[in-house]
Amino acid sequence: MKMYHLFCMMIALSIASCGARSASNSEASASETEAAPQLAVADFNADSAFAFVKRQCDFGARVPLTPAHAQCGDWIEAQLQRFCDKVVAQKAPLTTFDGKQLDATNYIGSIQPDAKKRILLVAHWDCRPWADADPDESKRQQAVMGANDGASGVGVLLELARIMHEKKPAVGVDFLFVDAEDWGTSDDELSWALGTQYWVQHPHVPNYQPMFGILLDMVGAPDAQFYQEGFSMQSAPDLVEQIWTIAADAGYSNHFKSVTFGAATDDHVFISRGGIPCIDIIDMRPNSDNGFYPHWHTTGDTIDKISPATLKAVGQSLINLIYGLQ
């Protein structure tokens, strides 16, 4: 998943390519989307979210072109059919950097699809084909289970969809589960987030323009550290500050750190370049060699590394944001 760039905030803001256009959009959006962070009108069920994460892992590593991937895709679509008012399975013919032809699928589930004011929530559902960061060189050709790197974000979003099925928010919500995010190479930025790049070029609704997008990536580790990621701060700084304030008010400042650290070439970068202000809630570690969660791109990214308490911190913060929007 994604390339990591470690640099200070000023450098990140000066060299990133996705922000000048989107930043102005985010300022307008922030004035329209004031939230009441102290108001929790719905309870995020961490056990339910954890069950959604585990179910994905039970299929195996969801690497494109494998049975586990196909089975999990069908399952995700079925969950969206249960919870959402409209579901689209977007087929995406893709070519990877190493020449593989993928019949990828992006899944989009919409709550209140006719509402004019909308937000976009995103996670990737595929797994990396190789554990190329594994400390054991003999395991580096094995697939990554992706309990945190992929399944955790999907699990949180499915629980949000379940809650919104029972209690509709005031705005429309689109859940975007993107495929083929993790089949990339470090020397080619465009080799990552292939499903997202396809969706940006072929949105599920013509002229689709939500107020903003939020990407969840690696949001399940017990000691997760959600710094204010550099490209997010360029694309939609007001939204970042708003969410981190809401999280602090809810008691989750142990995870949400109000400090800008590094930047990640992730799905949100391509969404922002497409004209939708989008931020990334992602586990980043200043003291790690790669800047990410310790089991990133290793065979150790398994379900035992997932904490319901962390899923709760992320999910409840988003609940408090979304149900405060008017």
Description:
- Helix content is about 35%, strand content about 20%.
- The two termini are about 35 Å apart.
- Helix 3 packs across helix 5 (about 145-165), helix 4 (about 65-85) packs parallel to helix 5 and helix 8 crosses helix 10 (about 310-320).
- Strand 2 (about 85-95) and strand 3 form a beta hairpin.
- It is α/β, with parallel strands linked by helices and about 325 residues long.
- Strands 2-3-5-4-6-10 form a 6-stranded mixed β-sheet, with helices on both faces. A two-stranded antiparallel ribbon has the order 1-9.
Structure at a glance:
With 326 residues, the chain is α/β, with parallel strands linked by helices. It has ten helices and ten strands. The protein has a six-stranded mixed beta sheet with strand order 2-3-5-4-6-10, sandwiched between helices. It has a two-stranded antiparallel ribbon with strand order 1-9.
Oligomer: single chain
- Main beta sheet, described? 6 strands, mixed
Our estimate of the beta-strand percent is 15-25%
Spatial extent as radius of gyration? 18 Å
User: Share of helix among residues?
Assistant: 25-40%
Gap between N and C termini, in Å? Answer: 34 Å
- Shape descriptor reads globular
Q: Looking across the biggest beta sheet, what order are the strands in?
A: 2-3-5-4-6-10
What's the average pLDDT? 90
**Weakly predicted, low-confidence segments:** 6-38
Number of DSSP strand runs: 10
Q: Note the total helix count.
A: 10
The ordered H/E elements are: EHHHHEEEHEHEEHHEEHEH
Structural class: alpha/beta
